[in-house]
Write a structure and sequence with these properties.
- The chain contains eight helices and four strands.
- Helix content is 48%, strand content 16%.
- With 155 residues, it is an alpha+beta fold.
- A four-stranded antiparallel β-sheet has the order 2-3-1-4.
- The chain has a single domain, classed as 2-Layer Sandwich (PF0523-like).
- Helix 2 runs parallel beside helix 8.
- It starts with a strand and ends with a helix.
- InterPro entries: CGI121/TPRKB, CGI121/TPRKB_sf, UCP022062.
- Belongs to the CGI121/TPRKB family.
- It comes from Geoglobus ahangari.
- This is Kinase binding protein CGI-121.
Length: 155
């Protein structure tokens, strides 16, 4: 499994995703604090998938549900692709890099942590002000991974 980041322009999300194999997941970087969090969620998803303890019908959706730390597909899709220019983190368990590059993917650093992103991540993962204040912004990735771990054991 590889996890990397970059940009890709998407005209039609459904058509774009149909050209990728299962196990190639693109996560909206606006909701990603660090690559370790995405890697952590993907490893949990793979372990559950291989053990037959799946929530989703496809490995890609299983990974996205773990990244989003929810069973709700509609909520998890908030972390997915949009039409237009996308900053993404890619979880690649199917060797899809060449396919992605053929669709215009460019690898580059896209993860930045600013106040707006902290607010968005805290809201999505239900991390309260007091919890963030106690842990500190520098530990936000750990708080996100805690939500992911709790999701994995609650299945």
């Amino acid at each position: 499994m590889r996890v990397y980041q970059g940009r890709v322009k998407v005209e039609n999300v459904r058509e774009f995703l149909s050209k990728l194999p299962d196990g190639c997941v693109l996560v909206n970087a606006d909701y990603v604090v660090d690559l370790d969090s995405v890697r952590f969620a993907a490893e949990k998803a793979l372990k559950m998938w291989e053990a037959g303890k799946r929530v989703a019908k496809t490995l890609s959706m299983e990974i996205l549900l773990h990244v989003a730390a929810t069973r709700q597909i509609n909520q998890a899709l908030e972390l997915g692709l949009r039409e237009g220019e996308n900053r993404v983190v890619v979880v690649d368990v199917s060797g899809c890099r060449a396919s992605l590059e053929g669709l215009g993917f460019r690898e580059e650093d896209v993860l930045e942590l600013d106040e707006e992103k902290v607010r968005r991540v805290c809201e999505f993962y239900d991390i309260g002000d007091e919890e963030l204040e106690i842990a500190g912004v520098e530990k936000l990735g750990l708080l996100v991974r805690e939500r992911m771990a709790l999701f994995a054991i609650s299945k």
